[in-house]
User: Fold these one by one.
Assistant:
Number 1:
Amino acid sequence: MIVEKPRTPLRAVEIPTPKPGANEILIRISACAVCRTDLHVVDGELPSPKLPLVPGHEIVGTVVERGKNAHRYKIGARVGVPWLGWTCGKCKFCLADRENLCDRALFTGYTRDGGYAEFTVADERFCFPIPENYSDAEAAPLLCAGLIGFRSYAKTGNAKRLGIYGFGAAAHIISQVAKFQKREVYAFTRRGDSDAQQFAKSLGAVWAGDSESLPPKKLEAAIIFAPVGDLVPLALKAVDKGGTVVCGGIHMSDIPSFSYDLLWEERSVCSVANLTRRDGEDFFKIASRVPIKTTVEVFPLAQANEVLDKLRHGKIHGAAVLVPMMASK
Ligand SMILES: [Zn+2]
Ligand SMILES: [Zn+2]
């Protein structure tokens, strides 16, 4: 399923199976989760995507061929491919252990082809082994909702009372980690979305309510996963002195102006960009211990357009996952 031009539906096409380069592996895809970032790419909200493009950056599959320098995984091994597809290793950010900010980074399903397909190639140095206790579809959302959600979560330090705005794929994973670490999750959803509020409580949230409402106690930190700038002042209002508001998405509508009082008393706002390989290693270590259970809705790859539309309208609980074999059989 390819993007030919942003703001037009994806198209199902036959393309040649890619050949792995020296450090790359060829992967037969068994599942690819759908991320809000895919929607931003398809909707033309992110600059300069590769075109035409195979989107998708939460890929699980098996290695079927290896490039000449690729020895990390055996043929038949199960691997995950995340958003961070390649970094230069030489720029000041790479050298400072901040490869998520690499000047020349390539991103899966954005500036290189991704997982809405039957096969993909990936640089093996950026792939992760998948823990055995997950099925392919259950593991797929860990690759972005999990990884970048976890980087956002890490930015909240050891905040005990944690607000989460936008209860989608990332929130449903991160609230399980938070509960495991004995933190309290306060879930904020679209107004009147009682299904999402119920879902949040079923995953251990101690409180769930509308984004415009204030929690019963001041929060120590908040993460905003919804791409809605209006939430920034609302979240600042909900956090206590010294609290942090983390914006976890790649794109957000404009943040409205707000009174300095909301930022005063050493509150802060920050964003999270991409991931490092270390984030991935840390996350997979804790994922097996929790253990994180993902709630997934599985669809055939051919339905990618319909699934993106469901995500756009908040109709997915947990994560949507595309499975290619269902399309071709
Ligand atoms: Zn770099
Ligand atoms: Zn993503």
Number 2:
Amino acid sequence: MQFTMRTAAVVLALAEIAGSPAAARDPDPRAIQAHMEFLADDLLQGREPGSPGYDVAALYVASQFRSIGLEPAGRDGTFFQPVPLRRSRLAPKGVTLGIEDGSGETFSMVGHVVAYPSAVRAVEELRGRAVFAGNGIVEARLGRDDYAGLDVRGKLVFVLGGPAAGIPAEVAAHLSRPGTQAARAAERGALGLIVINTPAAERRLSFNRLREITQLPRMTWVDAAVSPLPGGAPAATAFVDETAAAALFKRAPRSYAAALKEAATGGARGFDLGISVSFHRSSALDDVRSANVAALLPGSDPTLAREVVVVTTHLDHVGIGPAVDGDSIYNGAIDNASGVAATLEMARALAGDRPRRSVLFLAVTAEEKGLVGSDYFARAPTVPSERLVGAINLDGVMAFYDFRSVVGYGVESSTLRTPLEHAVRSMGLTLMPDPNPATSIFTQSDHYSMVRQGIPAVFLQIGEGLAPGGGSGLALSAAWDKAHLHKPSDDLKVAIDYAVFSRFTELYRRFVLEAANMPEAPRWIRGDFFGETFAPHAPKASPQVK
Ligand SMILES: [Zn+2]
């Protein structure tokens, strides 16, 4: 039988008439609003990691977890997992790139180069030959090696930024991530990586925006007991605009335009750029403490309770910044008080469901600094790592309109598709594909930290629906994103529909419950890029499994 919107409505109506427990534990819109009003208040000063505002938010979440009846799942019997953070800032005029082209003159790229501050060294001076390496991708399963025939030891590698052409969007998002590109360069002995902000990269993050972002303090975790290297800092990485790119290719065997054209048709060959470059970066470093907040709902099944489904959502935002219209507090109401509010209310509702597997609720710090808190948890979890079987993430609940579909980023990769489909159908909704693959959302929130440790994960978002004034709800969200994301105006004045918000939270509850009750732990689908890359030895599900 086709399960239609109408049958779902009838079933829900009957459940309400019967006064079933399902109706009684529905997420409460007022509770969600209350969490939002606390977490996005000006008093919390934008919840920047290391600030009192963040610590108050973390205490609030821990206190809510306690009142729900969840168990502490941080360190030393508390709800907190301290994350040792290294904060770094660029010194004024801290980044320079010079070209030495053999003419005896040094051409300075001031204004055309930006870099994040270093988490490792206060002063860096790198000088070496410049080599172009296409999109900087090395991936045997795709038969692709952009470094083929190149020797980059002791040199500076230039690569094209943005998702590479001819590769599925989510895979390209991973392979073309500056962090992944820098790791490939470092493995080959390169001194540093310089990413050219191509038009494709510009669509994802403009050079002007990059210039602003790199001026902000950056954080990485530093814990020698977990890893001798600071969390994810492989080779020194800088970004140049296309003006610089044209100059860098002046002595090269092929022009920048030709390389770009070649890349668009499935792969640019690398070559020596015929010049030397010098890169200088000065950063100021200090240490900061901030904590992830973790709580456990123990599973009800004596065997399956060993397995843990992790629910992640980031608690931090960017703090105080440049004033816009007289407001300098970046409250982060949608990004991501909303995800935390939904998770708290979902946890309260779920606690009465007695899921078979255990569920670990994790509100992380320093997401906005590059998924730092979640990466630390994923590498040094507070429960044995082999117990972590699946992850579900929320980041930005845009409850602006009545939605009829949801998006599950990563859903094609694992058997987590089944519980999500069940949950979606049970509410008369549909599952829609990634509406905008070019933005690489799959690599941009905390589930990705879990994916990198081999844990199947899904990032859940509201999909299409009818906007209040008519028209596409997703178009409304996209317009909101453009106007307010990471601005002081992402605050409590946002027009949130709390009835819609609680309906989304109910879907989220059903998804987590279904995932925690799956007969078999979530598995990667055989042949899936992420599963084969990050969990090569884990048992896989056949692609036919539904
Ligand atoms: Zn966010």
Number 3:
Amino acid sequence: MNQGARWVVVALAATIGGPSNDPDDSMVVDKASAADEVVVIVDGQMKSDRCLNDSMFVGSGPVTVGDLVKPTKCPAETTIFSKGHALTTVRPPWSKDQDAIVLQMGPSLREVNVDVYVVSTSDRAEDWARTDLDRARTLYDQNRTGLTFTETKFVTSASLSEAQVATIGTNCRQADGLKSSTLYASDRINVYFVPSIMIDYDFTNRGYNCFEKKPGNTDGAPNIIYISVLRHSPTTLAHELGHGLGLQGAAGHTGEEGTTYIEGFESVNIMWTGLDSDEAAAKDQFSLGQGFRMNADERSWLNRTKASSSPGPGSRKCHPSGPKNKIPCPPLAFDLP
Ligand SMILES: [Zn+2]
């Protein structure tokens, strides 16, 4: 697609427009490059009073969006998804007149600080820790989440004492102790590459995010992640980071062979679980609905302080998988066709 490519209108024809003499509004994303691969989602109120909900536009415009007016009853916000830029939500000043809205691209990718501890002494563990983080960066950018991961600490197994290894342990039951040690930072995501994760005596996970409140993990810790070197898979870290960023509970796992799945998802989705090694390694998708929640859902670790994340969408309680109320969050499976 060339720079300045025309908009591709994906879901608009049925919701707005129609024969009318009313002036249609237009939108353009300023200074977007082809590499940004912009996708815009519009919620708003039409002159007819109908609510426009999750209309998707692919490209940077300009595009005609029908006659949007100052909202009185509909959620009205526009979200810009792209590669290489933070996710941005704005509320354009729609009026009863013919509006020509110029949207600005978000700043560069929002950085999430990650401390990495390689506990396993396996000679591949350090390489895997680095390549997994790199893969997570690629997957999060490629799927337009607007997020990237900055390695703020990288601790090798050679520098950890036996006592420190014992403090880190092999599962979330040790989170309380770990949190009061120097092997944890509350303002970062802490990832521990351990030899294996022991949850039950006969069960071992590929990865484990400690967001659930349980004995030994009193408050829950979405910023503590264990990764198994024994059962290593290159997409596990990206998956566990997704749990930390709010994809939990009913919006957590998108599917698992033979049990449940959320309509609209396939096994290439990074939050699908229980796959064999080859299938797990091939996972490469987050939906736009998942990326939106990572930034906006109140459960996302990014929103732990409840502070509004300007220019992000701010913290809100997103429905698990579909629009069941007026809080604007696209459905979990909402994505490019
Ligand atoms: Zn999971």
Number 4:
Amino acid sequence: MHELSIAESLIGILVEEARNNGIVRIKKVKLQIGELAAVVPESLAFCFELVSRETVAEGATLEFESVAVVGFCDKCDESFEVRDQFFLCPRCGGPVFELVSGRELSVSSIEGETGEENGANQSSCCS
Ligand SMILES: [Zn+2]
């Protein structure tokens, strides 16, 4: 079940992003998942819930956006959408030279609270 390792690396990214942006609690995460990434959203959401416990991302909602598979043909110098795993150029019938998108799994946005409203003690910092 590779969703578990995906969820773990996702937490790593989120914790890092939250730290960089001063987010104390992540509420919503938008993910882009390529159709070839072979990720089951429900399964990833389940694993995410497990591994996000006691992290800044605990209780965050995941939103999934699926990314179409796009191939590129070097003969025609054209990119096109690949449907139903049909990896041939619609123009010349040759094999797809390169995949432009479809395998990605990336965080497209994060929403959270920065916790600035309770900044009573802002002057002292603990670097
Ligand atoms: Zn072609």
